[in-house]
Structure formats: structure tokens, C-alpha cells
Amino acid sequence: MTSKRIYILNGHPAENSLNRTLAESYAQAAQEAGHEVRLTHLHNISFDPDFGFGGYKVQKPLEMDLEQVLTDIEWSEHMVITTPMWWGGLPAKLKGLFDRTLLPGRAFNTRETNWMGMPTPMLSGRTGRVIMTSDTPNLFMRWVYHNAMLRQLRDQILGFIGIKPARFTHFSGASHPKPAIQNRPSSRAGSLR
Q1: Residues annotated as region Disordered (predicted)?
Q2: Alpha-carbon distances, residue 170 vs 23, 115, 131 (angstroms)
Q3: CATH H superfamily, domain 5-182
């Protein structure tokens, strides 16, 4: 097996969470499998999540923590995001991180478009994994919500900047996880698929 550079972003804004446990378990399993790993906990980074100016011509300078996140994404060959689903979407701070860091010139190119007029992704050549926690049962996610958050993350965020394929794992019943799940290392990290 070839060693990969893996960047893991724990997208839960609280210091302690099931998402943190999942991110750290994935990191440990990946390191034990011989991969290089960088791990960021959203709770530990400081930035203004408000995009603010509402356009790409005048952008806020990236805070040091956001610059490091973007550098880690650019460094990686495989990106893993753990996130809860709150009110059918991403936590506000995680969405703010994407709004602020995934900008033209580093994440996508608005001057070069594809045959449909969409900007060219600038972070191609990377794969992704999203590990999402929620209390929503899997069937409800699929049939009632039509996997809206999955599609947003896989297609409209990661796919838009070139990270694909992005595979998706959903754990429901997150408010009351069983201790065996909270403390079990990820068995999928070694294969990255």
C-alpha cells in the first residue's frame, strides 16, 4: 500500500464531541497504516466566519488559522471531514470556514471555465471522505431529505473545488452514541475507501 498525505478536519465547533472522537480515531488508524496525517479541530481555530463583502473582488485577508487550513488541504492527497448535521445543514462555523477559505485563485479558477461555464477546480487530484453524525435515521435522510447535505458537501463544495470522489459515511443516533462506537478506532482509514 502506498502512503498518502491525509488531512482531517473535525468540523464540530465544540471542544469535545463524537465528531472529535471519530476524527482522532481515523487519524490514529491512518498513522498506524503508515500514512502522514494532519488534524485540525474547528474548535481550536480562530477566524471571522462572515464572508462579509459579498463578492470576490474585495476579499478579507485570511487569518493565520484559515491560511493553515488551506495549506493543509493543498498539502493533502486525501481529505476527511467529520461534521454533525444541525438543522439539515452544516454548523455555522464550519460553513464559515468553507466560505472564507475556498475562494477563487486557490480553490477554483473563474477565469477558466469548463464547457458548461463552471469555474475550473484548482484542488483536483485529491480524494475525500465525509463522516457525518446526526439523529436522523438513514432512510429518512435518503427518502425525505433526499441526501441534501451529502449532495452539498460531495458535489457543491468538495466536487466544485476538485476533491473527488468524495465518499460519505452517515452515523445516526449521534446524541446518544453507544460507548463501543465512541471508543472504537476507524476500521476504514487503512483503505481510504
Answers
A1: 173-193
A2: 14, 33, 6
A3: Flavodoxin domain (3.40.50.360)
Domain ranges of the chain: 5-182
Of 190, 146, 171, residue with least CA distance to 29: 190
Nearest to 103 by CA among 151, 66, 148, 77: 66
pTM attached to this predicted model: 0.87
